[in-house]
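User: Please predict the structure of the protein below. I'd like the answer in structure-token form so I can feed it into my own downstream comparison script.

Assistant: Understood. Taking the following sequence of 239 residues as input:
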Amino acid sequence: MNQDRARYGDGLALLLVGTGDMPFPTVPPRVDVAASVVLVDSGAPGGVPDPGPATVVRIGEDVGRGAAVNCAVATLSPAVGLVAVAPADLGWPDGALDALRAAADRHPRAAILAPRVRAPDGTAIPSTHPLSRAVRRRPAPAADPGDEGPVGWSSAPALLQRRVALDSVDGFDPRYPGRLDDLDLADRLARAGWLTVHVPSVVVGYRAVERPDPAAPCRYLADRAPRPVRGLLRRAVRP
């Protein structure tokens, strides 16, 4: 693992991802830290209006967030070892990225560092979940733990990710365009020995967004089911 870590430097890249249902704002959000800002245009309506000093990765079609992030990460310099991923219109509060980077130093086995999430009215949006390799009819409710530490997985819209950890599992699985892409990634990272760490001292504001994909639960189960039932589950997945 030490040799793997040496592949990348300690640089930080912020990926702001615009997709078919998430256009870029007229003015990209301000970033208060030294970071390489990359605007990832995956079929966002209107494209990128004014990138300013940011780098633009244009994919040409809406391939989904996971595939868009994978494409953008592949373009980054080896000097970049940490990647922050957020929707195109999410603004990072002053000091938030620095605080997550400091948490990454405190938790060397953390592949994902997740902030607390607040709605526009100031109420907390619970975003941490137990990690399960089965999608249950009544899943455990999301939580908002008050202490910093490992959790199962996080559905926070903004996440700081360790690049070497992403490499170890080949990044996001592009077959998960909906809300289970973060769960799938966290599960595969956990199997590889990495952690998802909740950092409640860092708070980002965002509205709750549901992007349901009816096929995602069956796909998630099929990927993890015993071989005799795997084929039956995969028949339920949309082509």
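That's the full token string. The longest helix spans residues 96-106.
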